[in-house]
């Protein structure tokens, strides 16, 4: 193991030497070539290339210095990093300077001394602030923010991220600003102090709100929502998500708004307070209802339904899913409506109350019955059937599947009907009561026999035979197989 380490270290050093040597040779080669050209334009071009190569040489030299850092020797660390920063300030090329500073910030993030790291990152930020290229600066600021997120001292981390945010706010390019703000938000989410984290995210949200481009804004808002979901204080998290939702509501682009709503819903699902989570999701649903693009709206509804499925309060979850179902019912597109129904059905299956789950699945089935597209209707029925199979009450499950079968019988497309029957049969196979299962499988068999497409009928009969096998009735299973 030790030999491997030194071998790897040797290869890295050798690689660095080769890279440095090549850069030096190229610099000298260009210097010689430059002398051989007489035109002014050629001299300018050569000078620019020489400057870039010199910057690259300095960057490689800095990275070579960082490889020599002994993480256990703090005095040595300070000396090396001071040298590295001095070298960075001599680099003219913004991209090379940014890469070198990012390497320094990343190295600081590995040091287990909060005060030393904070001081070093502060100096790194000072140099980074002077970079005048708006496309190079953000990557360095992101690296600094990520390193601050690793500091095991909430106050120092918060102070450093606050300074980084101040520099980031001055970036004019929306995309560059947004990408850096997203990293800052993620770093705040790692701070193990809810009040400081919430305060920092509040400032980050204020800066984000000023971004005019919705495509750039949504990614940062999503990162802020995710960070709030990590705060270990339900009230502070709920308050922050409420503010994030207010900003999100003002976004005009339906797709961007939907993306942020999904992140907000997921964060609410992580809040360990059912009442606060329910209240927040209710507000998110109100915003989702106003989205005028059905596809974007469906994505939001699916995320809200999934979050309700995580709430550890069956009554509140049931109430929230009922409201979500009401909004879903208004969607005109059959396929999109079916997608949302499947998510709602899946969430109902997670409710640890068989009566409430069965009641709401019955409502979902009523909505599914009205879908006029056979394929979309079948997809919804399959999800509902699967969730009936998970209900921990045999009679309620049997009753629900019987209703699902009645809807499946009306599907006029053989392939879609067969798909629905297969899901219903599979759910019956999970019912741990052979008599109940056998009774309704007989009804499913009656429906399958009427399918007028041989291939579709065959798939349905095989699923019914498999279900008979699951309830330990090999005779009936064999009887069905003989019908193929």
Brief characterization of the structure:
With 484 residues, the chain is mainly alpha-helical. The protein has 23 helices and no strands.
N-to-C order of helices and strands: HHHHHHHHHHHHHHHHHHHHHHH
State the separation between the terminal residues, measured CA to CA. Answer: 62 Å
Q: Roughly how many Å is the radius of gyration? A: 31 Å
Largest sheet: none
Overall, the morphology is elongated
Q: Unreliable stretches, pLDDT < 50, 5 or more residues?
A: 1-28, 43-62
Question: Mean pLDDT score, rounded?
Answer: 84
Structural class of the secondary elements?
mainly alpha
Q: Number of helical runs? A: 23
Helix amount, in percent?
Answer: over 70%
Strand content: under 5%
Number of strands: 0
What this model shows, in words?
The chain is mostly helical. 79% of the residues lie in helices and 0% in strands. The chain contains 23 helices and no strands. It has helices at residues 2-36, 40-67, 74-88, 94-108, 114-129, 137-148, 154-168, 174-189, 194-209, 214-230, 234-249, 254-270, 274-289, 294-308, 314-329, 334-348, 354-369, 374-388, 394-408, 414-428, 434-449, 454-470, 474-481. Helix 3 (74-88) packs parallel to helix 5 (114-129), helix 6 (137-148) packs parallel to helix 8 and helix 15 runs antiparallel to helix 16.
